[in-house]
Amino acid sequence: MSFATSLRQEAQSIFDSIWQHPFVQGLAKGELPREVIIHYVQQDTQYLNTYCKVYGMALAKAHTQAQMRAFYERIGLLLDGELVPHQNLCQVAGASYEAVRQKAAELAPTAHHYARHMLSVAQQGTLGEIVAVVLPCHWIYVDIAKQIVDESHPAANHPFYDWISFYASDRMQAGLNELITMLDELAASSGELDSYLMKSAFLDSCRLEYQFFDMAYKLERWEPTPRTLPDIPPLPDADRVLERRDRPNDASLSDTRGLSDTRSLPALGGSRDV
Ligand SMILES: Cc1ncc(CO)c(N)n1
Questions:
Q1: Is 159 in contact with 89 (CB distance < 8 Å)?
Q2: Is residue 202 part of a domain?
Q3: Which protein residue has the closest C-alpha to ligand 1 atom 3?
């Protein structure tokens, strides 16, 4: 059995729990409360920035040009911040993506933990550990999207159709296969301790992926003293990214509904057929 397959087997119960988590079931059914979506996107935007930097650190430790190219391509995708899924989520929540990403939000405890976990492995670990720490992120989302497709064959009117199509796409599957192959190659030339550290990094990321969905669903924030951040000016590049895609009209750009901390908003999506 390949190293990646053995890690995947060891993580099976975590993958199962993620699939059963109400956030993921909400994605599958097309029903998620809007404040949950917005909390998720605010946290995930920052998560993806860190994730992108971790690939940059992997690039610095690459052994071959093929590895450098793989990391470089992933960084390219990430610099658009996985725009399509985030825009899809915001559109369902009735909020503008630009407003959500520009609203300063403190990293919630779990997102903070996950970011520090990846950064410390990236700084202190081997290339194999870095590939192991980023792999669950990719693997879990592709798995969720494919499972939704297999179980319910969502039609184009599914509220999260773009999210599902993005992660179930051949491009994401190809990126996943590339990472898995890389991990197996690196494991083949690793000693017992190195393999153990790779496994630890992988399993901790899997657990944190579960916690990340849970953080969004429970609107997790620091207690007892969440910090209120000053509004920061827009990222200079955010506009350019949006201009390259379908830019929302001005009315929706000024729509910041859902950015307040209200827990009583209704769920979205209702009982639309999948
Ligand atoms: C927390 C998290 N894990 C994985 C992905 C998929 O890239 C994401 N966008 N966010």
A1: no
A2: yes
A3: 137
